[in-house]
Amino acid sequence: MVLFEGHQKLVEIKKYISQYPELFYQPIPQNWKENRDITDKQLEKILESKLISIKDFENENIFVLGEYLHYLNPSLAIKMGVDIVLFGGALNFLGNSEHKKVLQELVDGKIKGCFSMTEIGHGSNLKHLMTKAKKVGDKLIIDSQGPEGVKCWIGGSTIADYTTVFCHLYDEKDVHQGLHAVLVPLKDYVVNSNSDKNTLYPGISIQDMGPKLGLNGIDNGYIKFNKVEVPVGNLLNRYGGFNEKGDYISNIKNKDVRFGLMLSALSMGRISIAMGSYSIAYKAFIIALKYNLQRRQFLFKNTKDEKRIIEYYSQLQKFAIIYSSLYYIRLGILDLVELYKKEGFSKKVHAISSLLKVYSSWMAVKITGWCREMCGGHGYLWDNQIGLLMNDVNIYQTFEGDNSVLIQQGTKWLLDEFSKNKFVGIMRYLKSYTLLGNKIEKIENRFNMELGELAFRLSGKNKEQLWLNNLNSIIRIGLDYTKLHLIYLTNDNKLIMNIYCSYVYNNEVPNELMNLILKQKLLENVIDKWDKTMIEVTEYIPITKYPQYYSKL
User: Fold this and answer.
1) pLDDT for 431
2) Which residues, including other chains, have CB under 8 Å from residue 189's CB and lie 6 or more apart?
3) CB neighbours (10 Å) of residue 189?
4) 184 with 234: CB under 8 angstroms?
5) How far is CA 371 from the centre of its chain?
6) Beta-strand relationship, 113-116 and 162-170
7) Could you tell me which of 149, 310, 378, 507 has the fewest CB atoms within 10 Å of its CB?
8) Where are the beta strands (DSSP E) in 209-260?
9) Among residues 296, 246, 2, which one has the least CA distance to residue 139?
10) pLDDT tens digits, residue range 392-423?
């Protein structure tokens, strides 16, 4: 169940990367500095390939590349994502034709970029970021305004040539014009050709944050801006900028609407994180499944061989839940990509991408943990990568939007839609669905009733306090909608649908369904398909060849 299985871009990517097996098909080093060094070399090789062009921001090709890189090395995928999807996406969606010249240099591999939004003092509350951009003549002066305004967790910051800085813009009359993005050089050579490539641009300070729990191939850093001067033309001005007289102008008069549009490019990043969560979880699933199909334990009466451990229902139930969950998350991601291609950064795309990012990352953390357990001590070994994948995916719950915040944004959209269509079943209003039977219809009716009750409880005065008082219900509604949304995407495979629904609504898989899994060799078929299309991704992992080649003795 590779997300973009058979896609032409995937064929091109695999063909290119297969030329460098010693660089890409190898274990991730345990030493964080070696990990970072290899990831940087991998990124250089990817950028040399010209596999991505500017037009790919309008289709799924960037997502196809991101998926495959996640299977190889999640740090590489995220580093490429920061460089291309976030930095490049900001230039593409918020900038003008001049900014796209920098974007062209980026996709040609001539420069690298990073994305400066999060600060020490504020991450989720972007309206209160401290970094300020003040117009003075034909310059913008960028300043962090103290330690809390220092940008932090900036991926790729130590190797980047430019960054897009999200900051509050003030005109020459010191009138606040809201949150904007500014293209800022980090290295002096991109402006002054006489400088070497390691000299920082005046006013820029960068500090490496050092080793982390996971994703240690990425150089996260602090960036401080001390009255950094850039031309006014570096303002990404698609939604607002300065005219020749120096006056601020925008076709969007409402600051809140403008604020939302400035952040709309983040939806692309959230789709990438949902996809990355899926890819990491699926790789862990494949590694654990290969081992469980081979490892045997305990001899039963009248049997010649010990029983495969996957045949014990304590193991099989978890594999069934994992496979069915990934099956539906995959459908949700593919449906979301099509919605994005059709609607761009619409409110619906923002809401669905937020909810799917939340659900897929929470499930990925659970899945990688289960896979580690189901491989016993072997799952704890570094070279077998499951522990590494567990650590890498953990941060997916909080970057590109904290899950506890994103799920509220998704539920807020649901409530807004419900308020416009109070007498229409919200599920059928949002998409034309075919009901999957009486049981699902009852679940849908219960969901609509609970959504209506929540809307009623939030309808009084002091809305902020009412929202806080009902936070548990808000989060539950967001999760319930996401699960129903996924279930309604298809009923092509009745066995997988019944497994997933049993897990979602009963928290277990009945024995009769597990018997069918074994009888139909559902999981063996998964491995056969993987080995025919993606074997190179797991070939070097010892546990996948158990018991052959496991010990070097």
Assistant:
1) 44
2) 161, 195, 196, 197, 199
3) 15
4) yes
5) 21
6) parallel
7) 507
8) 220-225, 228-231, 241-242, 248-249
9) 246
10) 999 999 988 899 999 999 999 999 888 887 54
